[in-house]
Design brief:
Elements lengths: L8 E7 L2 E6 L4 E4 L9 H22 L6 E13 L2 E14 L4 H21 L1 H8 L9
Antiparallel strand pairs: 1-2, 2-3, 4-5
Length: 140
């Protein structure tokens, strides 16, 4: 029996600086630092931050009304210092609009609380980053 809490992704090199990520469901995503048509690993990290919270916020507000506009943007500063490369000043900004009327008003009122709940409790990605969880690296 498999562990339902376990998550994994594998990557394979396609060419120098270009990789194919595959999840347990068989879905694939091409990326790399030398892929002119793909995301860089840092861009994927930023997309994961936005995507994780977006799912949370969309589910909660969507119970009241479907958004007429829903987008999120993540900005960060890439810094290279004595300790190495790191992102600083990561900022996630939501832009969410709902139709006029009682359902839209109810959804609109939920946005700040849904964003806070995602940040404080439910978004695994940003919570993991903020917790500073160590990454163990091994070579087979």
């Amino acid at each position: 029996m498999s562990d339902p809490s376990h998550r994994s992704v594998t990557i394979e090199r396609v060419a120098e600086g270009i990789y194919l990520a595959r999840n347990a469901r068989g879905l694939e995503l091409r990326f790399g630092s030398k892929d002119p048509d793909g995301f860089t690993p840092v861009e994927l990290l930023l997309a994961a931050i936005a995507g994780c919270s977006a799912v949370d916020v969309d589910v909660v507000t969507g119970r009241r009304s479907v958004a007429t506009e829903f987008s999120a943007r993540v900005d960060a500063q890439a810094v290279r210092d004595d300790t190495g490369n790191v992102l600083r000043d990561i900022e996630l900004t939501f832009r969410v609009r709902f139709p006029e009327g009682p359902e839209g008003d109810a959804a609109r009122a939920m946005v700040p609380r849904a964003v806070a709940a995602s940040h404080d409790r439910t978004c695994t990605v940003s919570r993991t980053i903020e917790a500073g969880v160590p990454v163990t690296v091994r070579v087979e």
